[in-house]
C-alpha cells in the first residue's frame, strides 16, 4: 500500500481516536463506571454472574460488596473447566485462547483466558493507540514508511481440540489483522518459532535489509539481538543498518538500567516509549515524549481497582478503592475486572500514580517481588533507581541482576547479596558496592534504619556474574524468549542459589 494512502488513513483514524482519548482523560470516573456496567451486563447470565447476583448490581459499591477479590489460584477452578470445554462460566462468549505466562515469579505457568473481545477491544485497540499517541506527539514521524521489528515470546501455539495455548505475543501475532502483518517484521512464521537461538538468527537474517523504523520488545532480550547485530556486522550503531529507525517501544522490565546501552547502540535521536501490558490485558501507554510515566487507558474493557501495598504485603484489611479515591505516590496493587471474564483479579503488579488529572502511573514492582527479610521493605523501584544512579557515577552498564537476602547467622548480621552481570564493569567494585548501598539508603528509609551501625544489616555484597550467566540459566530452565524475565528481588535464596551454582 502506498505510503501516502497509509498516511491519509492514519491521519483520519488518529484525529478520531485522539478525541476519544481526550474524552476519557476529561471524564475518567464516568468512563470507568460505564465500563463496569457493561462488563456486568455482558456476564450477568454466566455462572459467576448468577452466583454473585450481577442482575442486582447497579453501582461500584454493590459490586465490591458482592464480588470477592481473587488470585489466579482462586480463579483457576473456573479457568480449568473452561479449558476442558465448558462455556458461559465467567464470560458470555467462547474462550478459545489462553495466554500462557512465563512463570518466572512462580515456577508454574498460568493460563489466562483471552476472549475475542479482549483481543479486539483491548490488545489490538491498544496497539493502534500506541501508534496513534506516538504519531500525534511527533507530526514529523515517518513511522509508516518502514516496518516495525517485533521481538515476542518463543512459546509456540499449542492446541487441545479447539482450545489454543501460547505466549500472549504468539496469540496476538497469530490473530493479527492483515494491515498490521504487512507493516511488521519478521514474518509470522519466524515470529512464532519456538527455538530461541534459531529464531534470533532468522530474525536478523530476514530483517537486516528491511527499512526498520521502530522496535518493540522486552529490553533485556532486545539488547541481546542488537548486540549480536553490532558484533556480526562490525558496526558501532544500529543506525548504520536501519538509518530510519526512530522509536523503540518497550515494556516488561524497568528500562533505566538499560537506557544508556540503548542510547549507545541506537543513537541519540531514537525515542523511547514505554508500554504496560500483560497476559491479562493492556493497561497504560507513555503519552509524552519527554516523560516516562504512562497514561492509564480507561476504555479497553478493563475496570480498575487498587489496594495499598504496605510493608511488602497485601493485608485483607487494606482498603480497596477505585480511581475516584486513589492518591499520588502511594504503592498500589492492581485489581482488574475484564472483558475476558476475570473478576476483581489481582494481577500481581504494583504501581504508583504520578498524576491524577489525567491518571498517569509508573510500575513499581511485583507483589511477590520484594525483600523484607529484615524489615527493610525493599521494592524493585528502589533497587532500579539506586542501581541506575550508581552505574551512572561509575560509567558502567549491566545486562541483568538479581538480589536475595543473606540471613543473620550467629554473630553475623544479615545483608543483601547482589548477583550482577556487568556489560561494562566498574573500575573499583568495592567503591561501587559502597555507593550502591548508600544510594539505597537515600531512597529507602527503612533500609537505612536497618543498616544503622550494621546491627541488623551490614553493607550489601556484589557477586560478579560470568558472561551469559542469566542467558544460560534461562536455557537450563527452558525459558529462552522475549517474554521471560529474571525475578529482580526474592525474599528467599532459591533463584540466586540456582544461579550461583552455574556461575
Please summarize what this structure is.
The chain has helices spanning 3-26, 28-43, 47-51, 60-66, 72-83, 116-137, 168-174, 178-182, 188-191, 196-207, 219-233, 256-266, 380-393, 429-443, 445-450, 469-476, 494-501; strands spanning 97-100, 111-114, 147-151, 158-160, 163-166, 184-185, 212-217, 247-250, 271-278, 281-286, 294-296, 302-308, 320-321, 332-338, 345-356, 359-366, 370-371, 378-379, 397-406, 415-424, 461-464.
Describe what you observe in this structure.
This protein is α/β, with parallel strands linked by helices and 503 residues long. It has three domains: 136 residues, no CATH class; 169 residues, 3-Layer(aba) Sandwich (Rossmann fold); 132 residues. It is built from 17 helices and 21 strands. Strands 6-3-7-8-9-10-11-16-15-14-12-13 form a twelve-stranded mixed sheet, with helices on both faces. Strands 2-1-5-4 form a four-stranded mixed sheet. A three-stranded mixed sheet has the order 19-20-21. α1 crosses α6, α11 packs parallel to α12 and α13 crosses α14. The longest helix is centred in the first third of the chain and has 24 residues. The protein is globular, with a radius of gyration of 23 Å. The chain starts with a helix and ends with a helix. About 1% of the residues have low confidence.
Amino acid at each position: 500500500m502506498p505510503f501516502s494512502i497509509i498516511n491519509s488513513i492514519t491521519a483520519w483514524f488518529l484525529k478520531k481516536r485522539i478525541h476519544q482519548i481526550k474524552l476519557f482523560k476529561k471524564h475518567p470516573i464516568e468512563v470507568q463506571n460505564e465500563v463496569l456496567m457493561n462488563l456486568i451486563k455482558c456476564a450477568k447470565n454466566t455462572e459467576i454472574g448468577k452466583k454473585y447476583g450481577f442482575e442486582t448490581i447497579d453501582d461500584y459499591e454493590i459490586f465490591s460488596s458482592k464480588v470477592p477479590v481473587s488470585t489466579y489460584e482462586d480463579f483457576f477452578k473456573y479457568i480449568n473447566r473452561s479449558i476442558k470445554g465448558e462455556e458461559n462460566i465467567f464470560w458470555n462468549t467462547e474462550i478459545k485462547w489462553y495466554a500462557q505466562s512465563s512463570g518466572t515469579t512462580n515456577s508454574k505457568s498460568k493460563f489466562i483466558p483471552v476472549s475475542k473481545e479482549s483481543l479486539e477491544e483491548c490488545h489490538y485497540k491498544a496497539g493502534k493507540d500506541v501508534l496513534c499517541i506516538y504519531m500525534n506527539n511527533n507530526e514529523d514521524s515517518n513511522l509508516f514508511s518502514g516496518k516495525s521489528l517485533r521481538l515476542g515470546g518463543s512459546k509456540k501455539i499449542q492446541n487441545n481440540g479447539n482450545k489454543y495455548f501460547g505466549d500472549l505475543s504468539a496469540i496476538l501475532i497469530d490473530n493479527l489483522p492483515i494491515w498490521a502483518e504487512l507493516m511488521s517484521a519478521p514474518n509470522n512464521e519466524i515470529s512464532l518459532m519456538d527455538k530461541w537461538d534459531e529464531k534470533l538468527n532468522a530474525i536478523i537474517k530476514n530483517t537486516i535489509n528491511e527499512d526498520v523504523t521502530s522496535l518493540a520488545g522486552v529490553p533485556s532480550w532486545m539488547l541481546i539481538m542488537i548486540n549480536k547485530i553490532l558484533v556480526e556486522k562490525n558496526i558501532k550503531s544500529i543506525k548504520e543498518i536501519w538509518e530510519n529507525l526512530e522509536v523503540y517501544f518497550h515494556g516488561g522490565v524497568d528500562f533505566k538500567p538499560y537506557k544508556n546501552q540503548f542510547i549507545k547502540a541506537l543513537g541519540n535521536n531514537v525515542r523511547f516509549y514505554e508500554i504496560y501490558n500483560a497476559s491479562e490485558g493492556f493497561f497504560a501507554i507513555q503519552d509524552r515524549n519527554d516523560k516516562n510515566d504512562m497514561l492509564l487507558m480507561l476504555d479497553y474493557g478493563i475496570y480498575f481497582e487498587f489496594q495499598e501495598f504496605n510493608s511488602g504485603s497485601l493485608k485483607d484489611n487494606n482498603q480497596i478503592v477505585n480511581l475516584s479515591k486513589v492518591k499520588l505516590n502511594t504503592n498500589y496493587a492492581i485489581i482488574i475486572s475484564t472483558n475476558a471474564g476475570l473478576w476483581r483479579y489481582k494481577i500481581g503488579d504494583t504501581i504508583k500514580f504520578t498524576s491524577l488529572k489525567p491518571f498517569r502511573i509508573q510500575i513499581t514492582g511485583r507483589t511477590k517481588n520484594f525483600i523484607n527479610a529484615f524489615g527493610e521493605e525493599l521494592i524493585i523501584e528502589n533497587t532500579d533507581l539506586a542501581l541506575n544512579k550508581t552505574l551512572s557515577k561509575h560509567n558502567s552498564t549491566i545486562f541483568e541482576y538479581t538480589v536475595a537476602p543473606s540471613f543473620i547467622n550467629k554473630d553475623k548480621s544479615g545483608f543483601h547479596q547482589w548477583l550482577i552481570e556487568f556489560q561494562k564493569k566498574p573500575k573499583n567494585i568495592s567503591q561501587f558496592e559502597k555507593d550502591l548501598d548508600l544510594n539505597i539508603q537515600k531512597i529507602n528509609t527503612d533500609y537505612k534504619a536497618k543498616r544503622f551501625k550494621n546491627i541488623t544489616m551490614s553493607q550489601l555484597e556484589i557477586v560478579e556474574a560470568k558472561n551469559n550467566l542469566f542467558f544460560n540459566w534461562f536455557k537450563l530452565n527452558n525459558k529462552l524468549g522475549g517474554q521471560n524475565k529474571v525475578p529482580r528481588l526474592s525474599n528467599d535464596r532459591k533463584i540466586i542459589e540456582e544461579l550461583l551454582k552455574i556461575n
